[in-house]
Amino acid sequence: MAVQLAPPCLDRLKSEHMEELDEATSTLDRRTTAEDDYLTVTLLASGLAGILRQRADELWHGEVAGLLPDSWRVAFTRLWWRFTEQQATPLDSDLDLLRLCTEPFAMWPVRLALSETDSYNALLHGEELSSFAEQAARLGKGDVEAEWVENRLHQALRRAAEENGVDPAGIERVYAELRRFIIDHPVLTDTEVRQLERRFAACDGNGQTFVRVLINAAYVGHAVSGPYRYRRCPGCRNTLGQIGIGCETVGCAGGVPEDVTVTSLAMVYEYHRATRRYIHDPGLVEVRIFDAISDCEELIQAVRAVLFAGVDAVDVLVEFLDPRQRDGADAPVVLERWGIDAKDQASARLLGRGFTWPQHFDCDERILALPKHRAEQPGYVEDLEAELEGRVRVTVLTEQELLRRIKARAGRLGW
Ligand SMILES: [Zn+2]
Asked: Which of 114, 128, 157, 397 could form a disulfide with 118 if both were Cys (CB 3.0 to 4.6 A apart)?
């Protein structure tokens, strides 16, 4: 039941449904209808997350699920009205709606006012939420389990930084270093964990390091001693399961899978599903932007880049330094600060709705950076800007354009 949209199929789908989509968005009141249908989709995604969670509970505890989640019920009713308005035959059962969730919205017998790009998404891929549905469920605060793990992980990360950093600047540095460490290590051995514990040695009342608490929150341990072999994607470093199935990481270029062997004393750790989803995969674009700026020869003296600045207030902070202190002052004068939030998300509309800028974090330029593959999707930037319009003041740029602007700004400041 997996829905895979290969490009030729996508083209066919577009030509077949373009007219209908155009008609749907032109004849109905654009603003109100779009808002209504995005709400329906958010509720559906939350409901699906709840259903999948219930099913996991049944498997673990042998419990029979009770009622379907409220958000699912509400979404079902809202859709029923959409079907009726459009003189389509309403759905008979929850199972029908569940089946529909595996198909892209553009294939549904009812027209929903979603952006063109969004209409080619399905909510379910096989038996898992699609990345579009994950994004929607998060906006609807629906995926409670993932949110819980994510919160626990963030708490552990902050605590480890607070306990190991001596002052606010130190806490900020340790936080960024630990977060980067997790992003760079989808698989860890116990030896690597011990090395990390030696560097960040602060312990809780039970003599356990805060770093160990963090690793336990972010990873799942397997008892392995000696060599441990796994396959990984060279693009994103995520582990790969069955042969022939790609990493499916958003925005990853992939490549020929690599076989990697690590050696452990007694334990090997792999990401918890939530760590991959909420720390590693979004971290790829954050880290790429940071590395591009900090490795750029032209900018080495001109700017100082800080990853996860303000304990994650922004993904990257770029500080333009005063060229009159070219020869390296102890406390360089900062002329300008640019804050960058990097996002690689399936739906521009949902990203725009959920996007906020941290209140207390002030900077001269606020930038929302997108990878090229998102910015190149037809209508993506326009949809995103339409959602942000009048709500959040932020400039939308691609990664590449961002780097060009930073270089140009440094040049104008005299570097
Ligand atoms: Zn990959």
From this structure: 114
